[in-house]
Amino acid sequence: MSFMRSTAPKFPATWTVKSFDEAIDDATGGNAKVQTGEYRDHGKLPVIDQGQAPIAGYVDDVSLACKAPLPCILFGDHTRTVKYAQVPFALGADGVKVLVPRHPLVPRFIYHYLRSVRLPDDLGYSRHFKYLREAPIPVPLPVEQRRIADILDRADAVRRKRKETIAITEELLRSTFSEMFGDPVTNPKGWPVKPLTTLSTVTTGNTPSRDVPEYFGDAIEWIKSDNINTPSHYLTPAIEGLSEKGRAVARVAPAGSTLMTCIAGSPDCIGNVGLADRQVAFNQQINAVTPNAGVDHRWLYVLLWLGKRLVQGASTNSMKGMVSKGKLEQVLWPVPPREQQKEFGALFDAALTLNRRQEAAAGESDVLFGSLAQRAFRGELTTA
């Protein structure tokens, strides 16, 4: 059965409804693609790809500008991100679809509508555009489209501001660490440097045999790299767990450990870290860094987070990337006195407490915005 047919919204009877291909042009073809390695921090032309960031980077070659008429909508075929472009841009890497609504559709209205379309969430990194194309496209009168777009724009602005506050708190954490200790990579304050093995115990994870189903259960979470790549600093909940029997053959890290991705499909992911606030098991792509007595676990986590380049410098630099346990243990880190580590740890706790409150508020905003969008596309927001 078609995915969208079972989840299509009920539009007002007064609205025209068209198929995706009748209403929207796919203008992806014929455009130059900028590879990730060509992105720059500054340039004449922004690069938009299928990542979460609104702008992935910049290029100076304006001949790379996307040829689609503006404004247009971009859809991440793998990531399901939907973006709105109204100034010239270059198209990043593969997996981005450039969509141009046909007259009389208002582009901003269609942007919000496509964001509301429910797509499969269990396909991993597969392609999703074929499912998006199954979505029926509502075509109310242009004046109604503009009214709905305006309402959702204002609601979305509130939601974005709450998320921006989270980013500000994170930047405060970065700047506080930098002010107290300096950049871990360059060590401008001249702290004595020590190998990681003198600060912590490093443990490589493993995978209990899949041939023994009894190893898997719900006695303890089994962390993978996806649980580390999180903006909230603490590990996200694991989807899969181990039984007590599985725990006995697994590698387990205590609360206060920093879990680090040391084997990854991309070198950029090497050195990603997440802080464990509970005991967890973890797989072989991860090394757990458990602080020794007297080393503040919060300071150590931020040291490793901000010093990611030092870890990547110990990588094999292969197409995938890997840092062995032995190499990681020998990476040198600047080490301030314990009293200052503990002082920073208290500031970290305060920042994370605030961050969690803000994340909860942002989550509520997401739910409210989703509800508002559903009402909008049922025609419930078109009257004064």
| Number of domain modules | 3
Q: Label the CATH architecture of the largest domain.
A: Alpha-Beta Complex
Question: What would the principal axes of the Cα set say about the shape?
Answer: globular
End-to-end C-alpha gap: 39 Å
| Largest sheet geometry | 4 strands, antiparallel
Total helices: the number is 9
Number of strands: 20
**Helix percentage:** 25-40%
What is the rounded Rg? 24 Å
User: In terms of per-residue confidence, which ranges show pLDDT below 50 for 5 or more consecutive residues?
Assistant: 1-6
**Category from helices, strands and their pairing:** alpha+beta
Order of helices and strands: EHEEEEEEEEHHEHEEEEHEEEEEHHHEH
CATH class of the largest domain: Alpha Beta
Output the CATH topology of the largest domain: Adenine-n6-DNA-methyltransferase TaqI, Chain A, domain 2
The proportion of strand residues reads 15-25%
Strand order across the biggest sheet? 2-9-6-7
Condensed summary:
By secondary structure, the chain is of the alpha+beta class.
Key traits:
about 375 residues; alpha+beta; Adenine-n6-DNA-methyltransferase TaqI, Chain A, domain 2; 3 domains; four-stranded mixed β-sheet; 9 helices; disordered N terminus
Commentary on this structure:
With 384 residues, the chain is an alpha+beta fold. The protein folds into three domains: 4-137, Alpha-Beta Complex (Adenine-n6-DNA-methyltransferase TaqI, Chain A, domain 2); 141-186 and 336-384; 192-334, Adenine-n6-DNA-methyltransferase TaqI, Chain A, domain 2, CATH 3.90.220.20. It is 32% helix and 20% strand. The chain has nine helices and 20 strands. It has helices at 20-23, 107-116, 129-132, 142-181, 244-249, 297-306, 308-312, 325-330, 338-376; strands spanning 16-18, 24-26, 33-34, 45-48, 57-59, 72-76, 82-85, 90-92, 96-101, 137-139, 193-195, 200-204, 216-223, 241-242, 252-253, 258-261, 273-275, 280-282, 286-291, 332-334. A four-stranded antiparallel β-sheet has the order 2-9-6-7. A hairpin with a 5-residue loop joins strand 6 and strand 7. Helix 2 (107-116) crosses helix 4 (142-181) and helix 6 (297-306) packs across helix 9. The longest helix is centred in the middle third of the chain and has 40 residues, at 142-181. It is globular, with a radius of gyration of 24 Å. Residues 1-6 have low confidence and may be disordered.
